Each structure stands twice: as structure tokens, then as C-alpha cells.
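Apologies for my clumsy wording, but are you able to produce some protein sequence, whichever is easiest, and the C-alpha cells describing how it folds?
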Amino acid sequence: MINMAIEDILMFDETIFQNINAFNPDYMPSNYNFRDTQMEGMAMSIRPAIRGGRPVNTVILGSCATGKTTAIKKVFELVEKTTDKVICCYVNCQLHTTRFGIFSQIHKKLFGHQPPETGVPFSRIYEKVMKYLQKEEKALVVAFDDVNYLFQSKNANKVFYDILRAYEEFPGVRTGIFAILSDLEFRFQLDKNVNTVFIPQDIVFQPYTYSEIFSILSDRAKSGFYPGVIDDEVLEEITNHTVDVGDLRVGIDLLRVCGNIAEGNASRVITLEHVEEAVNKQGSVNLAQTIKSLNDVERTLLKAVVESDEILTAGELSEQFKTQAGVSYATFNRTLEKLEFLRLVDTKYTGKGVRGNSRQIILRFSPEDIRRCDL
């Protein structure tokens, strides 16, 4: 009987999903709204390269899930449809952090395949890439998504130098970098010999508003589900949860989870009960993934909050943290802001202290839930 039930689930033809891929993280929506200004700014940075000049180096700033990656991919797609004078290469720095790995991605973009992983020195790949650009008189724009991972691997300065100062060894080569990140301190970690050529303009992605999030989720639902599967009341509930969490990706994934639950219940529509069940399922998974993404310093600070028997003020936590981690107050403050940004903690002003700026640090999850995530 159990085997028959499993077969029924696997072979059941009816579905409420019109295109389940619409809820994937790498899905490129046909309707991409609310980022025209930012995309125009990116296009302006690339335009000099189309006219035979150098692209303008650019830092793309914004919190998670504000559309930065989708925007850069859309702009790169439009550039390649418009001209063959500019080659646009997107690199995910969570996956590629070494010089060889990054230039392998550039090599693949130029020649259609990656170089051999062994037996070929980096210098030969680098020379092949730059001589091609020199000979074909084409500009290269490289977008480094989540560029902070490149700094963690200690390869950022070398890679930036390789790309931006290539013209010194290969006259006529025109290159530019788009650095995508949420850390405003990023540029100050570059060596002086890189900073002299990496003088970027900033393009800022502000968080989406409530109405924008509702519109985006509504468009995604129309792409992913058949008509009539989800109504505005349910979409509003999912939007409310998305705003509370502060991450659009959570809302998009919640649509998928709700759809799976509805199908599992043989329902042709998604209900508020399905949303409640999906939120409960999604919460524990997202918490574990968030904690897994923390670096050692961020983990140390979160652990100090978790292990405290009482609610600490920022001043008390700072003294404790600086002793444990041996870091400055500026580092403490940035780390605390990161934990707040990730919705792991809240800060509440007490009205006490110097100029009334004393803050209490409050966990958004129970200590037990966080400890279960292998903190």
C-alpha cells in the first residue's frame, strides 16, 4: 500500500504549477520592474566602451535580494544584443575565488570553453585572454557578484590588478569592473596600486517597498502558477511575511513551498493555512542557512548574545566581544549591524546612556533554535 501511494504521488499528472522554474533563484523574469534608474546607470558605465573608450568601474551597492544580480544580468544581455565590441562576463564569487578560477570563467566567455584545470600555468591563460582582447579590439567588463568572498580568499587585490592594469602590458586593452556587494567598507581594503585605477562610481539599490514586493510576487505567481491558484489575500499574507523577514527571495521561495503543500493536499488553490504551514517549514531551514553563512567573527558575536543570561546593551556586548575576538569597536559595530541586517538580532534604543543612544540587543530566535543550527 505504501509503495502504491508513492507511485500515485510521483505519477500524478495534475499540477497547479504552470512553470515551477519561475520560483528558482536564478530565474530571469520577463517583467523586471522598479530598477530602471539603476540599470540606466550601469548602461552609462558601459557606454564609453562601446565608443572605443574604457568602461567606468562601478560599485553596485544594496542589501540582499534588492535585484542587483538580476539587473546586471539584464544589462549584460542587452549590451551583447546591441554590440560585439564589449564582452560582459559575470562571475559568482561564492563559487569562484581564485585567480585561475576567475580567469577560467573569462576564458570560457571568450572562447566557449574552460581551459584545462591542470598542466596550464595561469600566466598562459592570462596572456591568451588579453591578447585576444588586444587583437579583436574588444573591451571587457567583469561583474564580481558577492565580491566580499574574493576578499575573504585574499585574492581581490591580485585579480583587480590583473584586470585593471592589463593595459600596461597589453597596450590598447580596455577593461572595467562591476563590484556587487553590500559592504560599504569594501573599497578601503584595496592596495594603493589598485586604488589608483579602481576609482568607481556608486549605484545604489534601495530596499523594495511593500507595494513593490507585492507586485513582484504577484508577477512571479502569474508566471509560476495557473490562473486562479492564488488570490490577493494570500499574496498579501506572503508579502507581509516577506517584509518582516526583509528578503524578497524568502517570499519567492514561499510561493513554491505553498504550491507544493497545496498539491500534497490535493488542493487546486493555495490557502492561508498553506501559507502558515509553509512559513513554519521554511523558517528552520532559512535560519540554519543564515547561520552557516556567518564568518568566525560574526559567529563569535552571535554566540555571545545567545549565551548571555540577560539582555545586554551594545556597550556591555562590545566590551565582552572585544575581549573574546580582539577586534576594534568599529568592527564590533559593523558585525552587529550585519547580524541585525540578517534578522538574527534586533536593537532597541533605551533612551539611556550618552545622548540617549544606549541600545539593547535582543535575539529574534530562541537560543535553543540557534544552538540546534550548529552555531
Summary: The two ends are 42 Å apart (CA to CA). Residues 58 and 200 are 5 Å apart (CA to CA).
